[in-house]
Write a structure and sequence with these properties.
By secondary structure, the protein is mainly α. About 55% of the residues lie in helices and about 5% in strands. About 10% of the residues have low confidence.
């Protein structure tokens, strides 16, 4: 699958940027499967509805699976998305983006939004000729638009998107959450 067009990428990163989803995926990645009926204790800062929505969204995207006996674990796709989140948050922390202090989910959200900005996306896409895009017809941004090292998180996110076409369907509302 080719890299999705920018409007699809914007919808997908919006869906993947929900704070409860980011926390759910990274919690399972860091600490293992979540036991049945433990989400309220693990995520006391989210309402039960937010947790339920994030869990349903993660199931619809194929990021988690219900384990035998209950509880939620990550699929291979979920593990790979957790890696995208980690690399993205590390880049943001290293570059103090969007601010010198911030939480993990906030850094991921802001950086994903940056990656979906048309000028940044055009610069990163033009720098990746293997994706079949040359930037032809798109005015290329000035070099300062793309922060050093931003290509790393962008490349991982694009690899994840190409390997998970269901994300485009979910973001377009084709899958039920």
């Amino acid at each position: 699958m080719n890299t999705p067009p920018l409007p699809d990428i914007r919808r997908i990163v919006t869906a993947l940027s929900e704070a409860a989803l980011i926390r759910l995926i990274t919690e399972i990645d860091d600490n293992g499967p979540i036991p049945p009926r433990s989400t309220g204790r693990i995520f006391p800062d989210f309402t039960p509805q937010q947790i339920r929505h994030a869990t349903e969204q993660a199931h619809a995207l194929g990021l988690v699976h219900t384990r035998v006996g209950g509880g939620v674990g990550l699929t291979e796709s979920g593990v790979l998305l957790a890696e995208v989140y980690d690399v993205t948050a590390r880049w943001a922390r290293r570059h103090a983006y969007p601010a010198p202090t911030g939480d993990f989910a906030g850094r991921v959200r802001h950086t994903f939004a940056l990656l979906a900005e048309p000028r940044v996306h055009a610069a990163l896409t033009a720098a990746e000729p293997s994706l079949g895009r040359t930037g032809a017809g798109i005015p290329l941004p000035e070099p300062e638009v793309v922060e050093p090292g931003l290509a790393g998180p962008w490349r991982l996110l694009m690899q994840w998107l190409r390997a998970n076409p269901q994300a485009a369907g979910f973001a377009a509302g084709e899958l039920a959450a």
